[in-house]
Design a protein that fits this description.
This is Methionine aminopeptidase. Pfam families: DDE_3, Peptidase_M24, zf-C6H2. Cotranslationally removes the N-terminal methionine from nascent proteins. The N-terminal methionine is often cleaved when the second residue in the primary sequence is small and uncharged (Met-Ala-, Cys, Gly, Pro, Ser, Thr, or Val). The chain has 514 residues and is of the alpha+beta class. 24% of the residues lie in helices and 24% in strands. The chain has nine helices and 30 strands. It has a four-stranded antiparallel beta sheet with strand order 1-2-11-10, covered by helices on one side. Strands 16, 17, 19 and 20 form a four-stranded antiparallel beta sheet that branches. It has a three-stranded antiparallel beta sheet with strand order 4-3-7. A hairpin with an 8-residue loop joins strand 12 and strand 13. The protein is elongated, with a radius of gyration of 25 Å. The chain starts with a strand and ends in a 17-residue tail after the last strand. The N terminus is likely disordered.
Length: 514
């Protein structure tokens, strides 16, 4: 049982939960229109945390913590859904006995006990709840009946009052009552914007000569924690983020041939990585920050029992790479808001059950110019043409010839400083896969090889430089760069795209934005 005081009034919300679990973790699977499919709980309207059982902190009351997220999600209005609900949950009021859900057509209507979330493996969450509120008079004009129902959105926004005697009075007052919500949300946004403007230093390196218009927005948020039950790569807790296993094999050109068991491990982790990227894709729009995208990526990884591979890899501070406009790769997510006309690459790698899965895509932010469309389209075509050539007996150096030929035919250049790589139990290993022509890559493709192809294509010259953060690679001339990446398995007759999108016939997300 959990008990919580909210909204500044003496309104006590009580929740009773019973749960069954055969595993160590309990997750709530939810869909949010702004962030998409995550297994999360929420401690306020913007920040999310994964709930583990038993809780890592002895001070955390998991029942109260779970009530927080259910109160938010169930009362989220027509734009939020719970997995297991068909349709939308809307017009919900908290009463003295239960939470009343009046869903749209096909929705799961419930009073008392219902299923919140869905089965994930052997885990199930069941919840029943009740609320007790102080006696009030109905706030509908002309009605003086005793009110025991309170608007849940007002509770969420911290608006005092808002009591009604019935669903009918609540609906009848909706036209004017909803203006309170709008005003509270606008005030909250203004407050957050003012706080951010005071905190953010957009130029952490005074005197540095940037090659383009993009600027970092500091300070960065602290490195996010990963619960102890999630398996970690060997560099996760290293003070310098070094992988000792990778260091041991540094310089070797021997390419590992995966066993059937290892191949299946790669299929699983690459599917999970694809799910995480698809979550990030739905967040790309003007006004969103790359920090918000990184936060959602981090949570999506944890919800799938994955470690976000970039986190602390040679001290990289975030869970994914976000590269905007002239950034070639390894951009660090920060508080800069995405602008109409930007192009954004999101690079995802996850670690699960001992294996890494790696992919990235470039997205349009709102409406973009024709030059951006040509650059992104050509980059994607470079990747797919190279993939078409993958089969046993092909030399790895040949892929660069294919990529550069297509890029140059369209007036673009190919980055030379960064290449594709072998990947499996190691994040980066043999083979090296350069994307430019006449390279000296060693090795011939054989069944069981797993590696990435990830061409970086530029509007101007291919030369790059790195920001003082030691990570952010940008074009030296400040012109835009795009990138796409897949993890591939060489088969007996060709290759399998392990990170292929499962819907839209495998098409990249930007093609739906054209």
């Amino acid at each position: 049982m959990g008990r919580r005081q909210v909204g500044g009034d003496s309104v006590m919300l009580w929740a009773m939960f019973s749960w069954e679990t055969l595993g160590p973790d309990i997750h709530v699977d939810v869909t949010l229109t702004r962030t998409t499919y995550l297994s999360i709980v929420s401690n306020n309207h913007n920040e999310f945390e994964v709930l583990t059982w038993p809780p890592n902190s002895p001070d955390l009351n998991p029942i109260e913590h779970l009530w927080d997220v259910l109160n938010k999600l169930i009362h989220g209005g027509p734009t939020s859904q719970l997995t297991g609900f068909k349709g939308s949950a809307a017009n919900i009021l908290v009463s003295d006995t239960t939470a009343h859900l009046q869903g749209s057509s096909g929705a799961h209507a419930s009073t008392g006990q219902g299923c919140f979330g869905s089965k994930r493996g052997t885990n199930t969450i069941l919840g029943s709840m009740a609320a007790l509120v102080a006696t009030r008079a109905c706030e509908t004009d002309g009605c003086s009946k005793e009110a025991k129902l309170q608007c849940p959105t007002c509770i969420k926004l911290g608006i005092q009052g808002s009591y009604f005697c019935s669903q009918e009075c609540f609906k009848g007052s909706w036209g004017t009552h909803k203006l309170l919500h709008k005003k509270a949300k606008e005030d909250k946004k203004d407050e957050e914007k003012n706080c951010m403007e005071k905190e953010v230093n957009t130029d952490p390196w005074p005197g540095y000569k940037y090659s383009g218009k993009l600027r970092p927005h500091y300070p960065l948020t602290p490195m996010r924690p990963v619960p102890g039950h999630i398996q970690r790569p060997d560099y996760a807790d290293h003070p310098l983020g070094m992988s000792e296993t990778e260091q041991t094999l540094k310089g070797t050109s021997q390419i590992k041939i995966l066993t059937p068991e290892e191949t299946e491990g790669m299929r699983i982790v690459c599917k999970l990585a694809r799910e995480v990227l698809d979550i990030a894709a739905m967040m790309v729009k003007p006004g969103m920050t790359t920090e918000e995208i990184d936060h959602a990526v981090h949570l999506a990884c944890l919800a799938r029992n994955c470690y976000p591979s970039p986190l602390n890899y040679y001290n990289f501070p975030k869970s994914c790479c976000t590269s905007v406009n002239e950034v070639i790769c390894h951009g660090i997510p920060d508080r800069r808001t995405l602008q109409e006309g930007d192009i954004l690459n999101v690079d995802i790698t996850v670690f699960h059950n001992g294996y890494h899965g790696d992919l990235n895509e470039t997205f349009f932010v709102g409406e973009v110019d024709e030059g951006a469309k040509r650059l992104v389209q050509t980059t994607y075509e470079c990747l797919m043409q190279a993939i078409d050539a993958v089969k046993p007996g092909v030399r790895y150096r040949e892929l660069g010839n294919i990529i550069q030929k297509h890029a140059q035919a369209n007036g673009f250049s190919v980055v030379r400083s960064y290449c594709g790589h072998g990947i499996h139990k190691l994040f980066h290993t043999a083979p090296n896969v350069p994307h430019y022509a006449k390279n000296k890559a060693v090795g011939v493709m054989k069944p069981g090889h797993v590696f990435t192809i990830e061409p970086m294509i530029c509007e101007g010259g291919w030369q790059d430089e790195t920001w003082p953060d030691g990570w952010t690679a940008v074009t030296r001339d400040g012109k835009r760069s795009a990138q796409f990446e897949h993890t591939l398995l060489v088969t007996e007759t060709g290759c399998e795209i392990l990170t292929r999108r499962l819907d839209e016939n495998g098409r990249a997300h930007f093609l739906s934005q054209m």
